[in-house]
Amino acid sequence: MGQSTVVQLLTDARKGDAQAREALFERCRNYVSLVARNNVESWLRSKVDSSDIVQQTMLEAHRSFTDFQGGTEAEWLAWLRRILVHNSQDAIRRYRTDKRQAHQEVALDAGFRGLSASFHVEPTADIETPSKIMCQKEAEIELADAISQLPEDYQDVIILRNLQRLPFDEVAERMGRSRPAVQMLWLRALRKLEQILSLPDGEA
Asked: Each residue of 2-25: b (16+ CB within 10 Å) or e?
């Protein structure tokens, strides 16, 4: 994808450049998808396909684009997350069967943080961790794009272990594998992610 910055795309889109506007939303699709998977599926599991919420979020963001008043990438991503939170909570209200689960809406809203801030790797991991690389790059979108390039099982184990920070025993249960198998999968996934993040821009 083109390497124009989010800020430049925002500026051009506000001037009426339709291609810049489309590129802006396409640039952020992996980010929105990953945030949805990390935060929505952890609550709704099989009840809702997070891709439906992603699609709804992108459509609403398109329609209300002129309402966005910020000027930085961080503000733009926070704005997208707020729309995603609203749509996610609507889904929870529709599919919730136990009123005692109302506290989930608060937890969901609190959990929508920047991906780099949420990403955690134990210091014992024998690699240059992706979190260190992301601290150097300070790029939420690049992290989401890199994770989207991983095989599905690598994505799953990273979301469960590094973003949701679940213990290995629970990750193993969620993925239907043994704990040793999940730990090996996790290390392979981190090494692959580190390789992708270390590539020069545009070579992934």
From this structure: eeeebeebbebbeeeeeebbebbb
Find out whether 35 and 115 touch, Cβ atoms under 8 Å: yes
Whether 125 shows a pLDDT value over 90: the answer reads no
Residue 135 has pLDDT above 70, yes or no: no
Least confident of 91-95, 138-142, 145-149: 91-95
Number of residues that make up the chain:
204
Report how far residue 109's alpha carbon sits from residue 39's, in angstroms, rounded to the nearest whole number: 9
pLDDT score of 109 more than 50: no
Using alpha carbons, select from 136, 8, 132, 144 the residue that is nearest to residue 76: 8
DSSP the chain: -----HHHHHHHHHTT-HHHHHHHHHHHHHHHHHHHHHHTHHHHGGGS-HHHHHHHHHHHHHHTGGG----SHHHHHHHHHHHHHHHHHHHHHHH---GGGGHHHHHHHHH---HHHH----TTSSS--HHHHHHHH--HHHHHHHHHTS-HHHHHHHIIIIIS---HHHHHHHHTS-HHHHHHHHHHHHHHHHHHHHSPTT--
**One-letter amino acid identity for 36?**
A
Distance from C-alpha of 156 to C-alpha of 178, rounded to nearest angstrom:
15
Whether residue 41 is predicted with pLDDT greater than 80 in this model: the reply is no
Q: Which residue has the higher pLDDT, 159 or 115?
A: 159
